[in-house]
Amino acid sequence: MDNKGLQAPPLSLLDKYRGQGFHALYTTTVTVSGGETGHGRASGVARSDDGNLVIDLRLPAALGGPGHGTNPEQLFAAGYAACFHGALNLLAQRSNVSVDNLAVEVEIAFGRDPVDGGFALAADIRVRMPGVQRQVAEELVRNTERFCPYVKMARQGIVSVVAVVD
């Protein structure tokens, strides 16, 4: 066990990568099973390959479910907020800007898509940096938008391979 305690990632993560293709730095797998109703979103269980994440999924009351559980939109919002917070924190460190009380709030809305009649997600990100001049805060946020992989995924899409396996 490491006795150093929790530490932020190194600033070297801000260094530009100049490789030929995608270079994975970390990979994880989460599996969702259907649970009581056989429907992953309504009663499923999400489990990570390392066992650190085990969450019961429940359909929110707004979608006709019982609520009282975690749903995919909450998980996505948590990941988005954590990634944006971390990226902004690194960029602030590199710029010698103190962001001691930095807070990132991400609202994810699940709704109908007028383009195809199906479903879509919308994200609203709100950043609080008390004590940081507004102009400095806005520049940090703009730079974070270019750097954060969740923002890039939301704007540009993500490489996604879907396959049936045995």
Which helices and strands, and how do they pair?
Elements: E1 30-33, H1 40-43, E2 45-48, E3 54-56, H2 72-94, E4 103-112, E5 119-128, H3 134-147, H4 149-156
Antiparallel strand pairs: 1-2, 2-3, 4-5
Q: Helix and strand succession?
A: EHEEHEEHH
CATH-derived topology of the largest domain = GMP Synthetase, Chain A, domain 3
Helix coverage percent: 25-40%
Q: What spatial form do the alpha-carbon principal axes imply?
A: globular
Termini gap: 37 Å
Number of strands: 5
Enumerate the strands of the largest sheet in spatial order, edge to edge or round the barrel: 1-2-3
| Count of separate structural domains | 2
- Percent of residues in β-strands: 15-25%
**CATH architectural type of the largest domain:** 2-Layer Sandwich
Main CATH class of the largest domain: Alpha Beta
Task: Please explain how this structure is put together.
The protein is an alpha+beta fold and about 170 residues long. It has 2 domains: about 20-70, N-terminal domain of TfIIb (Single Sheet); about 70-165, 2-Layer Sandwich (GMP Synthetase, Chain A, domain 3). The protein is about 30% helix and about 20% strand. It contains 4 helices and 5 strands, in the order E-H-E-E-H-E-E-H-H. The chain has helices at about 40-45, 70-95, 135-145, 150-155, and strands at about 30-35, 45-50, 55, 105-110, 120-130. The protein has a 3-stranded antiparallel sheet with strand order 1-2-3, with no helix packed on it. Helix 2 crosses helix 3. It is globular and about 50 Å long. The mean pLDDT is about 95.
